[in-house]
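User: Predict the complex with NAP.
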Amino acid sequence: MTIAILGGTGKEGAGLAARWALAGHSIIIGSRDPERARAKAAELRERTRRITVIGHSNPEAAQLGSVIVLALPAEGLGATLPPVREVCRGKVVVSTVVSLTFGGPRLFTPPAAGSSAEEAQALLPEARVVAAFHHIAAHELAETEQAIECDLLLCGGDAEAKTTVTELAASMGLRAIDVGPLSNAGPLEGITAILATINRRYKLTNSGIKITGV
Ligand SMILES: NC(=O)c1ccc[n+]([C@@H]2O[C@H](COP(=O)([O-])OP(=O)(O)OC[C@H]3O[C@@H](n4cnc5c(N)ncnc54)[C@H](OP(=O)(O)O)[C@@H]3O)[C@@H](O)[C@H]2O)c1
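Assistant: Here is the predicted structure with NAP placed in the model:
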């Protein structure tokens, strides 16, 4: 698959890019600055020894990708998505976005839409948004020689899109669990705040979710 990662210069996006490049996918790193995207792509080619990683501006990446991954801070959705609305029409868009506010009274601070994934769906009404990868930490993704131990929870309104994301998860060794419609994205994103709190409390870096009985 050709996967465009908007905000792919960051920790989460670059980690996903490395895992998927190693799994044989073609990766387009997107950025607000095409030079930064090209530099990150070069770094990832060097790290993974895969030549199928290139860099572009976010809009060019979204145009070239068959699957679009949102790996940018929640506050960036409002500016980043309207310009790519047309090129995302009909495509699978994976939102990894979680709105966390550190240092305030409430760690998980979802937008008015209920979740960042629903905000993305409202901004990209013709796209097929799937919420996933919130619980897979960037540093775990980066340690590409190690398997990731947890399950991947995903939700969305389009069954075919969820199958695509399930395949993308499997290609990096993750079992995907379908947790229903996109209206479940709020609770799904909120679990990230729980995991971050567990990590802090127990001095961990990699607490994760595993579903039993499935
Ligand atoms: N880090 C994790 O372990 C983790 C785990 C699960 C989910 N997530 C979620 O994944 C997303 C990315 O996380 P991250 O840690 O990779 O974040 P990050 O490094 O802070 O940001 C990722 C990239 O987003 C772009 N960006 C920053 N501010 C922006 C804005 N206002 N508008 C548009 N683009 C902006 C930047 O790229 P350019 O400057 O090159 O455009 C940056 O390199 C977040 O929503 C986060 O909640 C993160």
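The pocket of NAP is lined by residues 7, 9-13, 31-33, 36, 71-76, 79-80, 96-98, 100, 134, 137-138 (CB under 6 Å).
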